[in-house]
Specification:
Layout: E1 10-15, H1 18-29, E2 32-34, E3 43-48, E4 52-58, E5 88-92, H2 95-104, E6 110-113, E7 120-125, E8 131-136
Parallel strand pairs: 1-4, 5-8
Antiparallel strand pairs: 2-3, 3-4, 6-7, 7-8
C-alpha cells in the first residue's frame, strides 16, 4: 500500500553563497524568506505562498566534493542543452511578462512549446547553475 497524504515538502539546494541564491529566487519567483531553525550551519528557508518551500544550505567546504556539473564554478552550459532530467519546473499564468522579466535581468534562456503549442516553456539556470523550467499555465 502506498503512503497516504503524500505531498512535496521542500526542495533543497546547496550553495557557497546562499544569500545570492535566496535573492535570485525572491526576485524571479516571489519566494518569501521565513524563519529558519538552527541546524548548526547556515540555511535560508524560502516559501512560495500556496506552493512550496526551498531550503538553501551553505555548502560545507570541508566535504571536498566537487561542485555539481552545472554549478557556477564550472562553465554554465547553454540552457538549450539543459539535461532533461536535471531541473525543477514552476508554472506561471503570466508567461510573456515573466519572460520579459528574465530578459530585463539579462538571464540567458531557451524557449520552446510542446508539440500541441498549448504549453510554452522557458529553460534557464539559477546563479549556481541549477536547471530551471517555467511553463505557461492557463488561468
Amino acid at each position: 500500500m502506498a503512503a497516504a497524504g503524500v505531498s512535496l515538502n521542500h526542495i533543497s539546494r546547496e550553495s557557497s553563497d546562499i544569500q545570492r541564491l535566496a535573492k535570485f529566487y525572491q526576485e524571479i519567483f516571489g519566494f518569501e524568506q521565513i524563519e529558519s531553525p538552527d541546524f548548526g550551519f547556515k540555511v535560508i528557508w524560502l516559501h512560495l505562498p500556496n506552493a512550496c518551500y526551498i531550503h538553501l544550505i551553505e555548502r560545507d567546504p570541508a566535504n571536498n566534493l566537487p561542485e555539481g556539473p552545472y554549478s557556477a564554478t564550472s562553465p554554465v552550459a547553454d540552457p538549450g542543452h539543459l539535461a532533461r532530467g536535471h531541473h525543477v519546473c514552476f508554472s506561471v499564468s503570466n508567461f510573456e511578462s515573466f519572460l520579459q522579466k528574465l530578459k530585463d535581468k539579462g538571464i540567458e534562456t531557451f524557449q520552446r512549446s510542446l508539440p500541441n503549442g498549448q504549453i510554452k516553456q522557458v529553460f534557464f539556470f539559477d546563479p549556481d547553475g541549477n536547471g530551471l523550467e517555467v511553463a505557461s499555465r492557463e488561468e
